UniProtKB/TrEMBL annotation:
<dbReference type="GO" id="GO:0006526">
    <property type="term" value="P:L-arginine biosynthetic process"/>
</dbReference>
<dbReference type="InterPro" id="IPR018223">
    <property type="entry name" value="Arginosuc_synth_CS"/>
</dbReference>
<keyword id="KW-0436">Ligase</keyword>
<feature type="binding site">
    <location>
        <begin position="8"/>
        <end position="16"/>
    </location>
    <ligand>
        <name>ATP</name>
    </ligand>
</feature>
<feature type="binding site">
    <location>
        <position position="117"/>
    </location>
    <ligand>
        <name>ATP</name>
    </ligand>
</feature>
<feature type="binding site">
    <location>
        <position position="123"/>
    </location>
    <ligand>
        <name>L-aspartate</name>
    </ligand>
</feature>
<feature type="binding site">
    <location>
        <position position="175"/>
    </location>
    <ligand>
        <name>L-citrulline</name>
    </ligand>
</feature>
<dbReference type="GO" id="GO:0005737">
    <property type="term" value="C:cytoplasm"/>
</dbReference>
<dbReference type="Pfam" id="PF00764">
    <property type="entry name" value="Arginosuc_synth"/>
</dbReference>
<dbReference type="InterPro" id="IPR048268">
    <property type="entry name" value="Arginosuc_syn_C"/>
</dbReference>
<keyword id="KW-0547">Nucleotide-binding</keyword>
<feature type="binding site">
    <location>
        <position position="124"/>
    </location>
    <ligand>
        <name>L-aspartate</name>
    </ligand>
</feature>
<dbReference type="Pfam" id="PF20979">
    <property type="entry name" value="Arginosuc_syn_C"/>
</dbReference>
<dbReference type="InterPro" id="IPR024074">
    <property type="entry name" value="AS_cat/multimer_dom_body"/>
</dbReference>
<keyword id="KW-0028">Amino-acid biosynthesis</keyword>
<dbReference type="GO" id="GO:0000053">
    <property type="term" value="P:argininosuccinate metabolic process"/>
</dbReference>
<feature type="binding site">
    <location>
        <position position="87"/>
    </location>
    <ligand>
        <name>L-citrulline</name>
    </ligand>
</feature>
Length: 399
């Protein structure tokens, strides 16, 4: 039996061309695997059939929307994951899930290798291959775009020569990756970092400058997991999908940033992540209400490291697994409601309530009924200041 290669298939030019190219170069049969991650756009049944038309011996589409939301987006939300304090890991979150299904397909169909369409410049090559090394280290990796200097011109010529059932003339000026958690846009005129984004490149969000009525939403969390909107119980997938529509209609979640890629270069990226940005804002505020101060301070450093690990393709690493355990414990009391006003490109918290709240009105108020014993404060301040006072005396004595 000939070798079998499992291909991460998107339906675009590069991965469509990869099917007959791999078959020729490696003498292998190709199994195409596409995932529905809530990205919308083209019908995935058409994508499945296109892979077969390009020569794949098997073509499968996995409905992974609910899995992606519950097992990847929710952990990112509980970690308030924002790479460089801004990017909500849109592409980085999807790669370990794709890897998981590639490895499963290799076992199912007897695959001995996997293939992806990543170049040598990007982060995704690392995310795919580091994930595979953790889950199925026996599988070989074939990366035509990286390993064979596969350019777009070569891909178009190859597709035309083979008569592949794909439109090779349509060319977007951008490179786009999208899923339920958001949308990433790069290349084209955006590579000049002085050029501002134009409205044509956005799809998940409306122009935040357009006049419209504000939208108010109440998000309910249970142990850090979003479980309802405006009192309606929903799955995490349903919460994210609805907030993408509602926050996106208000222009929430647009990001334009120069980020530090794992491979050592800086890259200009434009993101749209309406649900992610709204949910993280709400979740962070609920943590402010329910998480004790020292735990909250330490968790902020854990959150940052968690986001860096996922960005760097280390979803399956021992450290990330250990941080998951910490975050899970820290989320025990992060339950309650947060009210957000969505308007003008912003998601603004206007109310919060929780049965596990650490906020005490009686301690916080300055009005009648204040239960805070201010007589204790004088001694507290003196003891708190004592180390600095002693050091200052020593410094004066020593000149």
């Amino acid at each position: 039996m000939s070798e079998r290669v499992v291909l991460a298939y998107s339906g675009g030019l590069d991965t469509s061309v990869a099917i007959p190219y791999i078959a020729e170069q490696a003498g292998a049969e190709v199994i195409a695997v596409a995932l529905d991650l809530g990205q919308g756009g083209e019908d995935l049944e058409a994508v499945r059939k296109r892979a077969l038309g390009c020569g794949a011996v098997e073509s499968i589409v996995v409905d992974a929307k609910e899995e992606f939301a519950a097992e990847y987006c929710v952990p990112a939300l509980r970690a308030n994951a924002l790479y460089m304090d801004r990017y909500p890991l849109v592409s980085a979150l999807s790669r370990p899930l794709i890897v998981k299904h590639l490895a499963a397909a290799a076992r199912q169909f007897g695959g001995t290798a996997v293939s992806h369409g990543c170049t040598g410049k990007g982060n995704d090559q690392v995310r795919f291959e580091a994930g595979l090394a953790a889950l199925s280290p026996d599988l070989k990796v074939i990366a035509p775009a990286r390993d064979y200097a596969w350019t777009r011109d070569k891909a178009i010529a190859f597709a035309e020569d083979k008569g592949l059932p794909i439109d090779v003339t349509k060319k977007s000026p951008y490179s786009i990756d999208q899923n339920l958690w958001g949308r990433a846009v790069e290349t084209g005129f955006l590579e000049d970092i002085w050029n501002g984004p134009i409205e044509d490149l956005y799809d998940y969000t409306a122009d935040p400058a357009e006049p419209r009525e504000a939208d108010e939403v109440v998000i309910t969390f249970a142990a850090g997991v979003p479980v309802a909107l405006d009192g309606r119980p929903l799955t995490p997938y349903e919460v994210i999908a609805e907030l993408n529509r509602r926050a996106g209609a208000q222009g929430v979640g647009r990001l334009d940033m120069v980020e530090d890629r794992l491979v050592g270069i800086k890259s200009r990226e434009v993101y749209e992540a309406p649900a992610a940005i709204a949910l993280i804002a709400a979740h962070m505020e609920l943590e402010n209400v329910t998480v004790e101060r020292d735990l909250a301070r330490f968790k902020r450093s854990v959150d940052q490291r968690w986001g860096e690990l996922v960005y760097d393709g280390l979803w399956y690493s021992p450290l990330k697994n250990a941080l998951d355990a910490f975050i899970d414990d820290a989320q025990r009391y992060v339950s309650g409601d947060v009210r957000l006003t969505l308007h003008g490109g912003r998601a603004v918290v206007t109310g919060r309530r929780s049965g596990a709240s650490l906020y005490s009105y009686d301690l916080a108020t300055y009005d009648t009924g204040d239960s805070f014993d201010q007589s204790l404060a004088k001694g507290f301040v003196e003891l708190w200041s004592l180390p600095g006072k002693i050091a200052a005396a020593r410094n004066r004595e020593q000149g």
